[in-house]
Write a structure and sequence with these properties.
This protein has 217 residues and is an alpha/beta fold. Helices cover 39% and strands 13% of the residues.
């Protein structure tokens, strides 16, 4: 399957009733600061360079970020952190990620997530993670050059371990695991609950991407 056909399949997915209903609900009610904007309101595919060596796996789109803009890690603080650091290490053409038409182009990197729909309270169920898993499998087959997978958060790490058929080890920030032809790098997710509480500092975030850059060179 081509990446185009896979992305179309993801966009039209309605496997999880709870998530489909939630997307419709928040796309109508919105939030005050985005009340005049039209929300994308569909499951999101990954994006980036399909010849990439670096695959970045997140948790799920944000309700008023990716779900609004139509691209993962776009239009919210997590997207700001990711775009800024990817630009610093030459994975991105610009240091911001705001909308589908902002000109952002990724180089040697592809961004995806364990779950393709924004979940209530950012907490997908085990069944919803499982329902999305095959999309990640198909993406991984298409992205045949990937040698490093950067997992943002424990759910992303556990899902990635399942993807490459290995048992998860203890999750932590800036850990590196090597499994045959692929390396897994782990990081805390750049969510507000981590960045604004000091759990994840900019220096610690940068250290992960510095390591990722060296691994794919």
């Amino acid at each position: 399957m081509s990446i185009f056909l896979l992305n179309k399949k993801i966009e039209n997915c309605t496997k999880c009733t709870r998530l489909s209903n939630y997307l419709q609900q928040i796309s109508k009610t919105k939030v005050k600061r985005f009340s005049n904007e039209k929300y994308y309101g569909k499951p999101l595919s990954g994006f980036g360079d399909i010849k990439a060596k670096l695959l970045i796996v997140g948790l799920a789109p944000a309700a008023h970020g990716g779900n609004r803009t139509g691209r993962m890690f776009a239009g919210d603080s997590s997207g700001d952190w990711l775009a800024r650091i990817m630009y610093k290490y030459d994975f991105a053409s610009i240091p911001t990620s705001q909308s589908l038409n902002d000109g952002l182009v990724l180089r040697n990197a592809y961004v995806t997530a364990a779950v393709r729909c924004a979940p209530p309270q950012n907490k997908p169920t085990k069944e919803e993670i499982q329902a999305c898993f095959d999309y990640l499998v198909q993406e991984y087959r298409i992205l045949s050059k990937v040698s490093v997978i950067l997992c943002l958060g424990k759910i992303a790490y556990d899902t990635t371990c399942k993807l490459i058929n290995v048992k998860p080890e203890k999750f932590g920030h800036n850990n590196l695991f090597e499994y045959n032809s692929v390396k897994i790098l782990t990081s805390y997710h750049p969510s507000k609950q981590n960045t604004q509480t000091g759990r994840l500092s900019w220096k610690e975030w940068s250290a992960v991407f510095q390591k990722a850059k060296k691994l794919v060179e």
